[in-house]
Amino acid sequence: MHGRRRQHEREPTADEKAQAQQRVERYCALSTQVAELKAANTYTVEALSLTKQLLEQNTELHSVWNYRRQIFMHLDSWQDMDARQQALERELAFLLEIITKNIKSYWMWNHRVWALGALPRPEWQRELGLVAKLLALDARNYHGWNYRRFVVAHLRAAREDAGAVDEQEFAFTTEQITRDCANHAAWHNRSKLLPAILAQRGEPQAVLQAETDLILNAIYTDPDDQNAWLYYDWLLDIQTSDTDRVRLLRGKVAAIRELLELEEDGKWPLVELVGAFAELDKLQPGAVTDAEKGEALETLRRLKSIDPLHIGRYTDMLRTLGGRWGSLAT
Question: Distances in Å between the alpha carbon of 286 and those of 159, 245, 282?
């Protein structure tokens, strides 16, 4: 881990080696037993218990997760809705226990989606609370956010006030971004929600201003983190009129200039400044003054020394913009 002194592990004792060897042998024997049961199409409560023992030791066995689902659906109790409810609630508890041990396992998240989908009487609001706790352990976890969208979609479908669900989720992304502006998953989730929020509130300018304020707060917190810059670009892309795009770009230029007064050699603010001028020029010919064009070209020259690893990119941009703006490139 960063910032921690490397610890040299001691050589295990003979007893520890023997115990480790025994664990390996038990695991291999259990794995072989489960594989044989699966090959024989054995769908019993005993087989279900053995798959649980194996998955507790290794959560990455996707074929065993598949076999476990098949066992559930072949049991006589599967057709009894009350019995199925109890069995799947126990399964969800089991999953919650082992997900905390390996929160990035695809197969566990997939299995939880299946279990919720097969549950006769799912409690989506409770599940939303559980996934919030899981994200508290790893706020940027892609699987957790993807699963959260799955839960929210079902919660929205189950409630008459779907708009309130969207507002609740939007507030959750605000909380997560405020806590950690580098949380790409939260920014991504916000982008999925914003079109619905714009439609519901009926005040697009107020919403866009609030979004701009959130972006600027993130940029001032960490100018070199790309997440807020990417969201800014996405916000520009979803505008339906060039007038709104120009207005947002002008706001972006003003914010970057203010930021550069505090950190004049910040790479990303400088890159974004050039990009904003170039985009303004494409959207509205004549909107960028000669002084601003000169500023953009001079910024690219500065970037060649500030960020020499990407000197080829800046040289190409100079050539492209210089060709567009003529004598200013000299």
Answer: 51, 15, 9
CB 71 within 8 A of CB 44: yes
Q: How confident is the model at residue 13 (pLDDT cuts 50, 70, 90)?
A: confident
Q: What is the mean pLDDT of residues 176-199?
A: 94
Amino acid identity of residue 125, one-letter, is: Q
Please compute the mean of the pLDDT values over residues 85-91 and round it to a whole number.
Answer: 97
Q: Are residues 321 and 278 in contact, defined by beta-carbon separation less than 8 angstroms?
A: yes
How far apart CA 49 and CA 42 sit, in angstroms, is 12
Q: Concatenate the DSSP letters of all residues of 96-112 into one string.
A: HHHHTT-TT-HHHHHHH
Instruction: Please list, in sequence order, all residues whose beta carbon lies within 8 angstroms of the beta carbon of residue 145, skipping any fewer than 6 positions away.
Output: 135, 185, 186, 188, 189
* Orientation angle between helical segments 14-39 and 45-57, nearest 10 degrees: 140
Instruction: Give the tokens for residue 57.
Output: 């030791």
CA atoms of 94 and 146, how far apart (whole Å): 20
pLDDT at 16 (0 to 100): 80
Q: What are the C-alpha distances in Å from 185 to residues 130, 145, 223?
A: 18, 7, 18
User: Which tokens belong to 27?
Assistant: 């695991």
Q: How confident is the model at residue 330 (pLDDT cuts 50, 70, 90)?
A: very low
The predicted model scores a pTM of 0.82
Rounded to 5 degrees, what angle do the CA atoms 307, 313, 315 make?
90
Residue owning tokens 């505090």 = 262
Distance CA 98, CA 109 (A): 11
9 φ, ψ to 5°? -75, 140
Q: Which letter does DSSP use for residue 264 in this model?
A: T
- As a whole number of angstroms, the distance between CA 150 and CA 124 comes to 10
Q: Give Dmax (Cα) for the chain.
A: 82
Instruction: Give the integer Cα–Cα distance in Å for 185 and 145.
Output: 7
Size (the chain), residues: 330
